[in-house]
Design goal:
- By secondary structure, the chain is an all-alpha fold.
- The protein has one domain.
- It has 3 helices and no strands.
- The longest helix is centred in the C-terminal third of the chain and has 36 residues.
- It starts with a helix and ends with a helix.
């Protein structure tokens, strides 16, 4: 899960998409998924959701701060 470890903002979105694609490809694979792997895939999904939520909140606060700084006094 390289998306979680990424520190370069320009790379994070790409890594998130790659992680989502890898998870979905595995789920669509004809090979059987056992309980342990299903739990791992579900945990990866939750991690991605948390990462996206964190990045969205960070973006929203950044926009709000920029709007405040740009507002006339």
């Amino acid at each position: 899960m390289f998306a979680i470890l990424e520190v370069d903002d320009a790379q994070i979105t790409e890594r998130i998409y790659k992680a989502i694609a890898a998870i979905e490809l595995r789920r669509l694979s004809p090979w059987k998924i056992d309980c342990d792997e299903k739990r791992a895939l579900d945990a990866a999904d939750e991690g991605i959701k948390a990462l996206v939520t964190e990045r969205t909140e960070k973006l929203v606060w950044s926009v709000r701060l920029n709007l405040r700084l740009a507002a006339p006094l």
